[in-house]
Amino acid sequence: MSQRPDITFTRLTKIAPDAILAHMSDPRLAEHMPLLKGGWDMDACTAFIAAKEACWARDGLGHWAILADGRYAGWGGFQKEGEDWDYGLVLRPQDFGLGLAITRKALAFARADARIPYVTLLLPPSRRHMRGLERLGAEMTGEVTYEGEVFRKYRLETP
């Protein structure tokens, strides 16, 4: 029986940009990321990291780099979108199986943070398996269009 890795969160600036670039350049990510258009290069990677750091500066919270036993597994976390704290998670394909464990840890963080009474999740229609989200207590609130793409919006209370 394999043991689950130790999941930790750190800032994206602590990760080698080449690792993030390789991750975001993987064509398998585009299957469920309709906003991921065009190719990624180091300029796009640098701009991405800067944009995520700007969220930290503005809101005191943002997306983390996610480590599994100390190695980069992807990025995700909470980003303020209007009044909502939106949760996002983008894993390297070889780490897709860690999504639920990472999400549980992130939600524990949200529940302990008084700024976050609930989180929202925007998922593209290509995502068909939602039982994990439903087991966590997320409820679909409708559909929204973001940058011309349709997403299903879910809400999860964090009492």
UniProtKB/TrEMBL annotation:
SUPFAM superfamilies attached to this UniProt entry: Acyl-CoA N-acyltransferases (Nat)
Protein's name according to its UniProt entry: N-acetyltransferase domain-containing protein
UniProt superkingdom: Bacteria
InterPro entries registered for this protein in UniProt: Acyl_CoA_acyltransferase
Species, as recorded: Maricaulis virginensis
